[in-house]
Amino acid sequence: MKKIVIAPDSFKESLTALEVAEAVKQGFSSVYPDAEYCLVPMADGGEGTVEALVAVTDGKTVHTQVTGPAGTQVEAHYGLLGDGKTAVIEMASASGLHHVAQDDRDPCTATSRGTGELIRHALDAGVRHIIVGLGGSATNDAGMGMLASLGVKFTDAQGNVVADGGAALIDVKHIDASELHPAMAECTFEVACDVDNPLLGERGATAIFGPQKGADKQALATLEKSLTHLADVLVENGFSDQREQQGAGAAGGMGFGMMTFMKATFKPGIEIVVEATNLKEVVKGADLVITGEGRLDSQTIYGKTPIGVAKTAKLYDIPVIGIAGSLSSDVGVVTEHGIDAVFSIMPSVMTLQEAFAGAKDNLIFNAKNIATVMAMKAK
Q1: 157-213: pLDDT as tens digits
Q2: Running DSSP on this structure, what letter comes out for residue 116?
Q3: Which residues form a coiled coil (predicted)?
Q4: How many degrees, rounded to 5, is the angle at CA 58 between CA 54 and CA 62?
Q5: Which CATH class is domain 3-42+282-378?
């Protein structure tokens, strides 16, 4: 065994992707001490994407205060990758549900302004390639708060700037993008998005995602009416109509706003991360690729990290092992998508908290066992 690539996602609530990779290496290197180990922390565009890409590119995390979804200041961050020109932003960092207490969530007033402030901060730092991960947002404002913080003016019939929040979009009459941040024209935007919902309708931003953000029946009707109005006004103001595009409904319509004003390219999150980590080049010549996540199940095949890694490895016919905290009864389907064998690190029945606490030691032990079996077979 000469070269082993370890490219896992995080084990949520217990280990980061880098910590998982290091634990697997520790277990394998006790059996194969002379192998070349390539650690590539991965993510699929959601939580952990900034951390994974910063780690693998030797970048840094930038912290700053921004406007949270409730209008108060919150601590947020983005990743500046090793090239110094690319930033990775998780929308949830600035505009996520976790910033608002359960009983205070209100998508009618929640704003995405903070996400725009993160983008502005990156642009002012000289970044000209921005990757934005959508998901986990508390907002339903079609990204208008974000755009307002980047210089777009949304005014009512009297010329007054409209308030923040999804419900206030019903007041928009005029849209002026002439003062959009000048660096926007030079910046390439990629959006990590794994949903194909349009902006409106029964599969739209409001109907599908509104309830989890605190919208009741009346609020859902208000928000749908407001988003419909905004889409109509944009067309009246000479902007393209993106309401039916796949992904327009992502993150409370943030996808719609980015399509309309940023000419953003939408890709599954794992594809963006595979490209950013240069994984195709890393796996060349490997004898084995190891991937994994907290739970491997039938949902793993839908754009999750382990399958993205496996597909990349199979470009070169490299065997792939999947390691997880737990396996579902239907996990066998992953073997039809490039993963050759799967293993759970659980040594016995235990509580969830015990599993979290023992994840590192169990992962090391499991990796060592897998390596030992492979070494026995090679003799």
Answers
A1: 999 999 999 999 999 999 999 999 999 999 999 999 888 899 999 999 999 999 999
A2: H
A3: none
A4: 50
A5: alpha beta
* Helices of type H across the chain: 17-29, 49-57, 91-95, 113-124, 144-149, 205-209, 217-236, 250-262, 269-276, 279-283, 305-314, 352-357, 359-378
d(CA 255, CA 257): 5
Instruction: Give the residue extent of every domain in the chain.
Output: 3-42+282-378, 49-269
- CATH, range 49-269: 3.90.1510.10
Distances 248 to 142, 263, 282 between C-alpha atoms, Å? 9, 12, 33
Q: Give the whole-angstrom CA distance, residue 294 versus residue 143.
A: 31
pLDDT in tens, 6-49: 999 999 878 999 999 999 999 999 999 999 999 999 988 877 88
pLDDT of residue 45: 82
Under DSSP, is residue 139 helix (H, G, I), strand (E, B) or coil? coil
